[in-house]
Amino acid sequence: MHKTAFSIGNFEIAWYGVLLAIGFLAGFWLAARRAPRTGVDPNTVYDLIPWLLIGSIIGARTLYVISYWKQDFADQPWWEVLMIRHGGLVYYGGLLGAILGVILYAWRKHVHLWRLGDVLAPSVPVGYFFGRFGCLMNGCCYGRPTNLPWAIHFPPGHPSWEKITEAQCNGVHPTQIYDSLLNLFLWLALAWLYRRKKFDGQIFAVYLMVYSITRSTVEFFRGDYPNVGLMTPAQLLSIPIMACGIILYFTLSRHRLKTPQTTNTPVRVAGSSN
């Protein structure tokens, strides 16, 4: 755990933000290279950057503030809500915000929605891969106490130490690394499937389904927040995300993939003709 990457005068630049930025840029670069395979202009991907950036940050921060209001914000000045560089983003909030940003962009610019979603979907795990290493450096999203030989230790005073002491364990699960590696494999799988896709929206739908499974699996090892009944908040959110992925997959699969176009095509929603 080492929060600060470097300093500019008295202003500290956190590893969390640096790694998020690297993941974001890497994801867009890969998406732009992937886009021409199905007739999407790479410039469309670059034009989408501010829409996705704003949507994902607002969504991720909003869900974090709602989830941790009592613990982190109730007794703090109002501007602490805006201090993203201190950490505090919820991935599912960012995903929902990003999806809304893509929908608004596709509607406003008359871009083929599901084709654009397929171009972007394999890049999401790339950003997540780097982002979870940012969590590791920041000390958040840590795991449950364990005696496994690959258990990790955070500096004294970290919230995990109290739990380690109570459980009489050697350390905690490196859940950030679990998540990063699973998303690395998910990126490879989606990139492979993208070259063989049968219909527009297939890659995006598969991402929603598979990510729901990988995230729910890692959640069994998380120790940084309590369960809601028998499940964590992320596992509860994974249920509707999985359902949306299944519904999209079987709805969109009824429509055959059209020949790629060299120009943008109008937005098409599930059930409409292309």
Structure overview:
By secondary structure, this protein is mainly alpha-helical. It has a domain of 188 residues. It contains 11 helices and 4 strands; from the N terminus they run ββαααααααβαβααα. A hairpin with a 2-residue loop joins strand 1 and strand 2. 39% of the residues are buried.
Write the layout of secondary structure elements.
Blueprint: E1 4-8, E2 11-14, H1 15-34, H2 42-47, H3 49-67, H4 69-73, H5 91-109, H6 113-120, H7 123-138, E3 145-146, H8 160-167, E4 171-172, H9 175-194, H10 202-219, H11 233-252
Antiparallel strand pairs: 1-2, 3-4
Concise description?
This protein has 274 residues and is mostly helical. The chain has a domain at 4-191.
The Cα radius of gyration reads 20 Å
Enumerate the spans where pLDDT stays under 50 for 5 or more consecutive residues: 261-274
Helical residues, percent: 55-70%
Shape: globular
Q: Determine the oligomeric state from the structure.
A: single chain
Gap between N and C termini: 50 Å
Task: Supply the key terms.
single chain, 274 residues, mainly alpha, two-stranded antiparallel ribbon, 4 strands, disordered C terminus
